[in-house]
Amino acid sequence: MPLPPGPRIRPLDWGFERPKLGTPRRVQQLHTHQLVESSPPPVLSQLGHDTGFDEVACAPTCMVMAGIAWGVIPRTASVRAAIMAAGRWGSTSRAGTTVEGLGKIAEGMDIDFEQRPYVTAAGVRELLDAGAHVIVRGNSFVLPWSDPPDEPDDFSSHVVLVTRQDDQGRFVVHDPYVTDGEPRTLTAEALEHFGEAKDNRDRPFIMGVAKMRSGLECRTYHDRRPR
């Protein structure tokens, strides 16, 4: 069930206003059009903000990192209030945020996005090469820096923000569940291993998030199977 409504949050309470959406624009694909250049996103933790849903706030936190990178959210904004606002836009519940909810958060921030229902290193690389950042959903237990599960087949749905590839071709990951403010890295094999498990609610996916040139937008979901 959705989170219970909290006290009304005014725009100045979180340091930014929800963007007013412009006139309808054509739906495009992120990787086929020029994207607005972003600044490096911060590494934010979903924990310790007393939002009431810290443990399941990975998706709103990833979107807040993306929103800061594209200048939608000022770096001086309250992280707690920004995560709470994103959680409300995405109808984050005690079970987390759905694929559709992530799209609603992006729309609330006026950030363009393209979702694909399969995690492949090639797909992530394609979106990064276009200038986007990529949200990847998978099983947190298989991340090298996570605690091991109680049972080998345990699944814990989690999303992380992939911002770029380093000089060695590893994917640079901003994991909202870490608290030291440092990015992590994953090889292509490790990234796909993160996204190959499935649970009963949502299958893992990738979602490119960016800002496109004025006059274009992307709000699309591609059921494209890996080659």
Please count the helical segments. Answer: 6
What is the CA-CA span between the terminal residues?
37 Å
Low-pLDDT regions = 1-15, 223-227
Report the average pLDDT across residues: 84
Query: What's the gyration radius in Å?
Result: 16 Å
Order of SSEs: HEHHHEHEEEEHEEE
Helix proportion of residues, in percent? 10-25%
Distinctive features:
227 residues, alpha+beta, seven-stranded mixed beta sheet, 9 strands, disordered N terminus, disordered C terminus
Give a brief description.
It contains six helices and nine strands, in the order αβαααβαββββαβββ. It is of the alpha+beta class and 227 residues long. The strands form two sheets. The chain has a seven-stranded mixed β-sheet, sandwiched between helices. Strands 1-8 form a two-stranded parallel ribbon.
Describe the structure.
The longest helix is centred in the N-terminal third of the chain and has 12 residues, at 58-69. This protein starts with 10 loop residues before the first helix and ends in a 6-residue tail after the last strand. Helix 2 (58-69) crosses helix 3 (79-89) and helix 3 crosses helix 4 (99-108). It has helices at 11-14, 58-69, 79-89, 99-108, 121-130, 188-194; strands at 26-27, 112-116, 133-139, 157-165, 171-174, 184-186, 206-210, 216-217, 219-221. The strands form two sheets. A seven-stranded mixed β-sheet has the order 6-5-4-3-7-2-9, with helices on both faces. The protein is built from six helices and nine strands; from the N terminus they run αβαααβαββββαβββ. Residues 1-15 and 223-227 have low confidence and may be disordered. It is α+β, with helices and mostly antiparallel strands and 227 residues long.
